[in-house]
Amino acid sequence: MTIETHQEPALVQSNVFKQLIIACENDAEKVQQAFEKHRSARNAKFKNLILNPSFQQWQFDEILHQVLEAKQGLTQYVDPRNNLSLWSRPPRHIRELIDEIQQILAPIAGPCESCRFGHTG
Fold first, then answer.
1. CA of residue 99 relative to chain centroid, distance
2. Structural domain includes residue 60
3. Predicted pLDDT of residue 9
4. 8: CB partners within 8 A, 6+ apart
5. Contact indicator for 86, 24 with CB cutoff of 8 Å
6. Half-sphere exposure of 12 (CA within 13 A, CB side)
7. Does some domain include residue 47?
8. What's the number of domains the chain is made of?
9. Any idea what DSSP says for residue 112?
């Protein structure tokens, strides 16, 4: 995807996330909708591909292999790809439900030294 813009043309053409943000007019809701549309289309495409009777084999992911080798200290490889992570907190009623469930499970599970939410039993 290439988007015509007067801002940083080389960067925009090489960074699909920047292109997406510009195309969505820096509107978080539009970005979320675009990602959902992309994710759904990609999932449907690969589901059809994998479930097709003519599917032969998985493709080896060379970048993933190099990243894992670097993580083990075997190489100095640096992943050249861009990444955009979107995080959000669940709404209050979901957090309260999780808290209730944790309080029920804590006595059963026993003490937890590394629990993030303070329920140690």
1. 25
2. yes
3. 47
4. 18
5. no
6. 14
7. yes
8. 2
9. -
Question: What domain range includes position 96?
Answer: 89-121
66 touches 77 (CB < 8 A):
yes
Q: Which long-range contacts (CB under 8 A, 24 or more apart) does 7-16 make?
A: 15/82, 16/82
Domain co-membership, 74 together with 116: no
pLDDT tier at 97 (50, 70, 90 boundaries)? very high
Q: Percentage of the chain with pLDDT > 90?
A: 40
Whether residue 62 is contained in a domain is answered as yes
Per-residue tokens: 98: 């999780």
Q: Token digits for 104? A: 């029920």
Number of CB atoms found within 10 A of residue 54's CB: 5
Instruction: For residues 25 and 45, state if they share a domain.
Output: yes
pLDDT, tens digit (0-9, with 9 covering 90-100), for 29-88:
999 899 889 889 999 999 999 999 998 888 888 999 999 999 999 999 998 887 777 777
The number of C-alpha atoms within 13 Å of 92 and in the hemisphere containing its C-beta is 0
